[in-house]
């Protein structure tokens, strides 16, 4: 297909496709003349992946470029490529070095030992978690850290479900793309589900029985309050 058809099928404007080509995010098409190129299903698939990582995952184009480079490197064993892809899409903690960060890193390392998780205590995911722990303490909510194992309990079955999905894929490209999508978009999906659960839980816990009964004027009021729990966007506090 030509670039116009690729644009129509992928939903990505032609100027944006040309920009991705210049930046190396998208492989060049097969030249059919000095000014024309042919593009295949692989180009359409890559465009959809880029847009998903950008629009839903919130990654920068630079980060997307690093992820795609890891995906396309044929020299690395699949296991190492999967780990590299997951690391590159996990945001770093961004905390300055100091006693608080070192204490948080040790807490994360202890969590990994306690749960026998086979993960690098200084990897990007662990560093991100350490940064979160520091931020919680700075905000005066260090008690939230007591919930760490509860969150870990919830994360384990989700991680297993992710890998069950990955194992359905056979081709190396499918494996790596699945991990990238699962890490970025799966995290976005889990976060959205958590916010929805917050809305439901806060409504059931804090609204009055009269609102729950849905009688008369209270029915309309209860519905409006239900949609507005936690703010104008419907998110519960802390979601």
From TrEMBL:
<dbReference type="InterPro" id="IPR047057">
    <property type="entry name" value="MerR_fam"/>
</dbReference>
<feature type="domain" description="HTH merR-type">
    <location>
        <begin position="1"/>
        <end position="70"/>
    </location>
</feature>
<feature type="region of interest" description="Disordered">
    <location>
        <begin position="207"/>
        <end position="239"/>
    </location>
</feature>
<dbReference type="InterPro" id="IPR000551">
    <property type="entry name" value="MerR-type_HTH_dom"/>
</dbReference>
<dbReference type="InterPro" id="IPR009061">
    <property type="entry name" value="DNA-bd_dom_put_sf"/>
</dbReference>
<dbReference type="Pfam" id="PF13411">
    <property type="entry name" value="MerR_1"/>
</dbReference>
<keyword id="KW-0238">DNA-binding</keyword>
<protein>
    <submittedName>
        <fullName>MerR family transcriptional regulator</fullName>
    </submittedName>
</protein>
<feature type="compositionally biased region" description="Gly residues">
    <location>
        <begin position="215"/>
        <end position="233"/>
    </location>
</feature>
């Amino acid at each position: 297909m030509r670039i116009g058809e690729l644009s129509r099928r992928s939903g990505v404007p032609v100027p944006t496709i040309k920009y991705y080509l210049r930046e190396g995010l998208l492989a060049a098409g097969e030249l059919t003349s000095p000014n024309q190129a042919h593009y295949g299903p692989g180009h359409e698939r890559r465009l959809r992946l880029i847009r998903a990582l950008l629009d839903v995952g919130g990654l920068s184009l630079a980060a997307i470029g690093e992820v795609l480079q890891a995906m396309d490197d044929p020299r690395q064993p699949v296991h190492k490529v999967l780990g590299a892809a997951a690391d590159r899409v996990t945001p770093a903690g961004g905390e300055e070095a100091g006693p608080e960060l070192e204490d948080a890193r040790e807490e994360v390392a202890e969590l990994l030992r306690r749960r026998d998780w086979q993960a690098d205590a200084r990897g990007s995911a662990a560093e991100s978690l350490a940064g979160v722990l520091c931020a919680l303490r700075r905000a005066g909510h260090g008690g939230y850290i007591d919930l760490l194992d509860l969150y870990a309990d919830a994360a384990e079955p989700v991680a297993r479900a992710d890998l069950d999905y990955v194992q359905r894929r056979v081709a190396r490209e499918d494996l790596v793309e699945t991990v990238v999508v699962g890490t970025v978009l799966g995290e976005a999906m889990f976060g959205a589900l958590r916010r929805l659960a917050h809305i439901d839980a806060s409504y059931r816990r804090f609204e009055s029985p009269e609102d729950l009964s849905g009688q008369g004027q209270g029915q309309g009021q209860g519905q409006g309050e239900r949609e507005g729990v936690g703010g104008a966007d419907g998110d519960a506090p802390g979601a």
